[in-house]
Amino acid sequence: MIAQLRIYVPDKLSGAVVDSCSGELGVAEVSLHRGASVLPPGDVIHVLLARESVEGLVQKLHALNVQKLGSISVTMPDLVLSDRADEAVAAAPGEGADAVIWDEVSGQTGEDSRLTWSFLVFLVLATQLAAIGIVTDSTIAIVGAMAVGPEFGPLAALAVAIVRRQWPLGRAAALALGVGFPVAMLGAALGAWLSVPLGLFPADALDHGSAVEFIYHPGPYSLIVAVLAGAAGMLSVISKRSSALIGVFISVTTVPAAGFVAVALVLGEYEKAAGSALQLFLNLVGIVVSAVAVLVFYKLISKQLPREAALRLRRRALRSQR
């Protein structure tokens, strides 16, 4: 797996950046384009390297303050035909699929964690679909709700915020969940409240739903499923796997429970509503805890830039700015 870095730096810092790139194991190519940046003026450096070497190089670039003085962009080309690139991948330690680029993880989860109109609409639609599936005892409708639910992004962002201590990211994710679920549940409750007098479903609908009993009976397997879902979801973020099916897996433990709480409250089934609310809370906690555990594990096995090396690079960056 090959990655490509585009680095903009002021001309005084380009020498230090080129040295850091050239000395990184797993780098196949380094090209320097002097004066290629017009606004702001400076140099542009392109680097072709193994994905598993990206995090080590990015740590060096952070130590050189490149992200403040210039910029770093990382892309993954679909196809690279190069013997040098193949040799670089073979020389780099580890596997590209297991490599964690922490800035990439933070950026990806940050994009999906904000409270936006689209997030609210998707969560409202998912919870409404779940409520319909609950009152009609329709497994298909509940599965459809799982596919629509967008709550995986904020849950993953909470885990990243805890591990990396990025509290603004955590606050944004908590806001999305704290506003999104109540609004979605209110919408589902309103739909149920309007449906009962219209005769769209009977008032004792929850007493005959054999397909949805798992939603309001908190148990050890409910928490186990949530833990597995959180771990699978975070692994999908780290390894750049498709998040569509993982999102369905996550929603197994969240959206149906939220929809059930809304319907049960409208129908006066307070005990079942309490059970489903407890399951929703435990599942959300389980997902975040297991995602945190996955991130902590990867952080422990990831190579960190030694403090002495980081200090040397910072001093060199300061000298170049004088």
Strand order of the largest sheet: 2-3-1-4
* Large-scale geometry: elongated
How much β-strand is present in the residues? 5-15%
Number of helical segments with 4 or more residues: 14
Q: How many extended strands?
A: 4
Low-confidence regions:
none
Return Rg in Å: 24 Å
Proportion of helical residues: 55-70%
Distance between the termini: 39 Å
Characterization of the model:
The structure is a single chain. Helix 7 (139-148) crosses helix 11 (243-251) and helix 10 (220-239) runs antiparallel to helix 11. The chain has 14 helices and 4 strands. Helices cover 63% and strands 10% of the residues. The mean pLDDT is 85. It is elongated and about 75 Å long. The protein has helices at 14-22, 54-63, 66-69, 83-91, 102-112, 117-135, 139-148, 152-164, 167-198, 220-239, 243-251, 255-266, 270-301, 307-320; strands spanning 2-9, 27-37, 42-50, 71-75. With 322 residues, it is of the alpha+beta class. The chain starts with a strand and ends with a helix. The longest helix is centred in the middle third of the chain and has 32 residues, at 167-198. Strands 2-3-1-4 form a 4-stranded antiparallel β-sheet.
Give the SSE layout.
Elements: E1 2-9, H1 14-22, E2 27-37, E3 42-50, H2 54-63, H3 66-69, E4 71-75, H4 83-91, H5 102-112, H6 117-135, H7 139-148, H8 152-164, H9 167-198, H10 220-239, H11 243-251, H12 255-266, H13 270-301, H14 307-320
Antiparallel strand pairs: 1-3, 1-4, 2-3
Helix pairs in contact: 5-8, 6-7, 6-9, 6-12, 7-11, 8-9, 8-13, 9-12, 10-11, 10-13, 12-13
